[in-house]
């Protein structure tokens, strides 16, 4: 009798591969609605729509030099080392449009960034000219032959009107801000930030401000996740820590599911007597996505969906919590913001130190990347057990060590996932 209970309960878990678990979750990570934000608050957000150029850029033929706007053909005689003299008909500062039309034999003084006057097709730089005054008339002498188009940036050189300049889903960078500003787009259509509720379970948990008590620990995972969620573009909603009490957890989860886009819980997913999150998820077997993943740390990571909202129940062990967040919560948050490639990027590095631990499951080893003579090297953390907290701070990648690898020796190639 006892055995039957346990088989169908905590222990009878079906192991799924990491990518399979990720795919199950991603089915519930669709892009959220659009909102408009002022340009100054849009950096780092993801565009909800393609941005097309409302006008060409530059919008006018622009002088690239301080000098004289001329008709290139007029300078042809300079080939015979003869100075060509042109009558100066206007002076054009930046921001002003000349009413003069340049006709053969004439030129206009012009500044860098000013609109090239009608009729002119080139600008001679100031250093290649000389001037003289005669009866109140200014003349400019040109001693070199100028090609048509010289020192003139034609209208639409960078972007033509109607060109797609920024793609939907793109994360807005400083360069994008420059583009948006140049086109006068002050309100930016972005995907709203996913609201991700976090709560921790564990009767041993104290707050950061609490004095240490025997047998207790301070909740370090919640504040860590708060930062990770914010860095991933989400809006963390801190629901605090609760004791290992199924009723309490149920109430919290139900409330969070109503109000937020994603619910992340910490702890209580293993086989312990007080591992209530596992029990809670099992109450609705249809909604369960997975409760055992072929990975270390974080094998007990559990996920479910209720009313279309995903719940990710991360392990309480700090290392497992950290790894579980990056493999499962990060891509969900990215996809909810419309990221075209929501998973963290992968690469290959040279292992800088032996790594001999072998598992039955793929191991995600905290490590630090360092460029040495232009080659990326990876230093695995000194201690990387699931329960270890302190080496999280030293890692900017996770090495992916598959179970068939019989340990890795320094100098071998190793796959890594780059952390944000
Ligand atoms: N008999 C077995 N025991 C365990 C197994 C197993 O397969 N059989 N799996 C081990 C593995 S692997 C992991 S990982 C952990 C998973 O534990 P839970 O996810 O259930 O997490 P808790 O039991 O709540 O806590 C584990 C550990 O982490 C500390 N913790 C919890 N919450 C926080 C927090 N918010 N901040 C900092 N530290 C936290 C907690 O005090 C425990 O030390 O189970 C193994 N056991
Ligand atoms: O779930 Mo544990 O972190 O696999 O080591
Ligand atoms: Mg436990």
TrEMBL record:
Residues 197-335 form the MoaB/Mog domain. InterPro entries: MoaB/Mog-like_dom_sf, MoaB/Mog_dom, MoeA-like, MoeA_C_domain_IV, MoeA_C_domain_IV_sf, MoeA_linker/N, MoeA_linker/N_sf. One of its GO terms (molecular function) is metal ion binding. Keywords: Magnesium, Metal-binding, Molybdenum, Molybdenum cofactor biosynthesis, Transferase. It comes from the Bacteria. One of its GO terms (biological process) is Mo-molybdopterin cofactor biosynthetic process. Coiled coil: none annotated. Its EC number is 2.10.1.1. Pathway: Cofactor biosynthesis; molybdopterin biosynthesis. Its cofactor is Mg(2+). GO terms for cellular component: cytosol. The keyword Transcription does not apply. It catalyses: adenylyl-molybdopterin + molybdate = Mo-molybdopterin + AMP + H(+). CDD domains: MoeA. It is an enzyme of class 2 (transferase). Catalyzes the insertion of molybdate into adenylated molybdopterin with the concomitant release of AMP. Belongs to the MoeA family. This is Molybdopterin molybdenumtransferase. The lineage of its organism: Bacteria, Bacillati, Bacillota, Bacilli, Bacillales.
């Amino acid at each position: 009798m006892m055995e039957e209970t346990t088989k169908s309960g905590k222990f009878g878990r079906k192991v799924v591969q990491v990518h399979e678990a990720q795919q199950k979750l991603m089915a519930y990570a669709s892009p959220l609605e659009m909102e408009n934000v002022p340009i100054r608050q849009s950096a780092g957000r993801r565009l909800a729509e393609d941005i097309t150029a409302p006008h060409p850029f530059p919008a006018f033929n622009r002088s690239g030099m301080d000098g004289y706007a001329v008709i290139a053909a007029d300078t042809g005689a300079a080939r015979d080392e003869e100075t060509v003299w042109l009558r100066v008909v206007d002076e054009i500062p930046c921001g002003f449009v000349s009413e003069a039309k340049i006709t053969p034999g004439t030129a206009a003084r012009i500044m860098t960034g000013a609109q090239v006057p009608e009729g002119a097709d080139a600008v001679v730089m100031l250093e290649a000219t000389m001037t003289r005054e005669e009866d109140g008339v200014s003349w400019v002498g040109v001693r070199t032959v100028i090609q048509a188009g010289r020192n003139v940036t034609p209208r639409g050189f960078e972007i033509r009107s109607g060109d797609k300049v920024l793609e939907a889903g793109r994360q807005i960078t400083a360069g994008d801000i420059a583009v948006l500003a140049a086109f006068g787009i002050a309100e930016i259509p972005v995907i709203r930030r996913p609201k991700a509720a976090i709560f921790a379970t564990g009767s041993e948990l104290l707050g950061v401000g609490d004095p240490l008590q025997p047998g207790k620990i301070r909740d370090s995972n919640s504040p860590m996740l708060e930062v990770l969620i914010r860095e991933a573009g989400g809006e963390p909603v801190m629901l605090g820590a609760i004791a290992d009490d199924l009723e309490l957890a149920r109430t919290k989860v139900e409330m969070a599911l109503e109000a937020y886009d994603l619910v992340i819980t910490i702890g209580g997913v293993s086989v312990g007597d007080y591992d209530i999150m596992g029990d809670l998820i099992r109450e609705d077997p249809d909604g369960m996505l997975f409760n055992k993943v072929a990975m270390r740390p974080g094998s007990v990571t559990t996920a479910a969906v209720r009313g279309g909202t995903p719940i990710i129940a991360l392990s309480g062990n700090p290392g497992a919590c950290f790894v579980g967040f990056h493999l499962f919560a990060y891509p969900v948050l990215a996809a909810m913001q419309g990221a075209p490639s929501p998973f963290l990027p992968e690469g290959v590095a040279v292992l800088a130190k032996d790594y001999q631990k072998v598992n039955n499951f793929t191991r995600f080893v905290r490590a630090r990347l360092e460029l040495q003579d232009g080659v990326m090297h990876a230093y695995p953390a000194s201690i990387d057990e699931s329960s270890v907290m302190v080496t999280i701070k030293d890692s900017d990648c996770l090495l992916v060590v598959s179970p068939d690898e019989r340990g890795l020796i320094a100098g071998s190639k190793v796959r890594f996932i780059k952390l944000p």
